[in-house]
Amino acid sequence: MRPFIILLCSVFGPVLAADRPNIILILADDLGWADLPAYGNSFHETPHLDRLARDGMRFTHFYAGPVCSPTRANLQSGQDQARFGITQHIPGHRRPFAKLVDPAVPRQLPLEVETFAERLSAAGYATGYFGKWHLGKEGHGPGEQGWQTVLECQGNTQPPKITGGETRRTAEFLTAKALAFIEANKARPFLLQVSHSAVHIPLSTTPGLLAKYQSKKPVPGKLCNPAYAGLLEELDQSVGRIVEAVGKAGVAQDTLILFLSDNGGIEHEQGGRVVTSNMPLRGEKGTLYEGGIRVPAIACWPGKTPAGSLCGTPVITIDLYPTLLELARAPMPKQPLDGVSLASLLRDPRAMLNRDTLHWHLPHYHHSTPAGAIRRGGWKLIEFFETGALELYNLDADPGELNNLSASEEGRARELQAALAAWRREVGALMPVPNPAHDPARADELAKGRGGNAEL
Does 398 share its domain with 437? Predict the structure, then answer.
């Protein structure tokens, strides 16, 4: 899946029609919360993202889904992905002898879902989408969901049949498309999403960047993988070129840039080689520990969001839909929205939101067994569906989720478990069921078909 860093910047007063910002959403794939220098890993070099963080707002408790397609679904829809069953990457994978049979994953985001691109398009925005979609194929791509200018691709290189010329690095290729879109639409409000494949495995980077990091002295206490670092720098260079293009187009003061990751970082490649770490957070992509769902996020709108500010309020990717609609003065969709607008936080990182609870639903085998989670205030509960086991953590005191308090705080744990079950009923979340073919000796086998092991 993909990590999701978010770059957001907002206004200090009422948003007038003439003040509607251009919006650029840059989505990373599998980028972990701890990967950027701004979040603690100084082996990596991301000067452009560092500058965006200095010029804008950095979120410390920004959440996504635990894997790719669920986050992309809730981002586009403003609804929790459990409402339409996209709770695993599309098409999912299957463990035929595991203890539970997990729900089948739909092959696409339903077309009746109104995306934020459809809403902004109706409000007069030009819309452009470049990169990874992962929410359906023929007839269910971004072009059918409100995005007017579209180029879909994934992987970290693009062949001549995609580029129309020679093989190119994906980050550079997507950036060229983004720059052309900005130049073509600078005279009107525009919405641009650039969905990178970086830093998704298999890792690769340019020979020059690989050599640079191979010769760099490792940073004690950090995983320092040269290919990972080079790929991340390619992503950073893309961000820098996009920011530069916005400035050259004369619309920097009118443009909100969002940078984020689609899920927490994946710590290992196929074959088991460890390539990065989410420490001090526990877990990785495909789990409901903080390392699987907390992502880096930055928001920047010059003169609107406070420069160099930090926001510690827990927020989540479904909040972006109502935020963008409010800032763009776009009409609301027909479907109800599960997120809340972050416009007040963008003005003031200390602002209060009218919400204190977040939920996650992962009824599948990924890098964990099927589970659900709820965060209320500083408390977080994880419920594992195979055994019914509960884990309760005080994130304020224990951000690494090392001390399970479910026994000593049994009443709180049961209260949160009941609230999580009530939320599942409200959104119609599908649950796994007992597997009559369960074989403990073969429980970890991954079946071919229904996705196989295409997504780690």
Answer: yes
3-class DSSP state of 227: helix
Give the Å distances, CA to CA, from 84 to 1, 79, 95, 197. 19, 9, 22, 25
Instruction: Tell me how many domains the chain contains.
Output: 2
Answer yes or no: are the C-beta atoms of 317 and 274 closer than 8 Å: no
415 falls in which pLDDT band (50, 70, 90)? very high
Consecutive H or E run containing 371: strand 371-376
**What range defines the domain where residue 175 resides?**
4-353
Calpha distance 26→432 (Å, rounded): 34
CA 46/CA 231 separation, integer angstroms: 11
3-class DSSP state of 76: helix
- In the chain, the amino acid numbered 380 is K
- Where residue 379 sits, what CATH number does that domain have? 3.30.1120.10
Are 300 and 52 in contact, with CB atoms under 8 Å apart?
Answer: yes
Whole-angstrom distance, CA of residue 204 vs CA of residue 156: 7
Whether 1 shows a pLDDT value over 80: the answer reads no
| Tokens 């003439």, located at residue | 18
Kindly state the DSSP code that residue 391 receives in the 8-state scheme: E
- Banded model confidence at residue 456, pLDDT cuts 50, 70, 90: low
DSSP 97-134: TSSEEPPPPPSS--TTSPPHHHHHHHTT-EEEEEE---
CA–CA separation, 291 and 273 (whole Å): 18
How far apart are the C-alpha atoms of 31 and 83, rounded to whole Å? 26
Rg of the chain, C-alpha, whole Å = 21
- For residue 69 the two structure tokens come to 């397609």
Q: Alpha helix locations (H) across 157-269?
A: 160-163, 170-185, 207-214, 226-248
pLDDT, one tens digit per residue, over 172-196 is 999 999 999 999 999 999 999 999 9
If you ran DSSP here, which 8-state letter would residue 393 be given? E
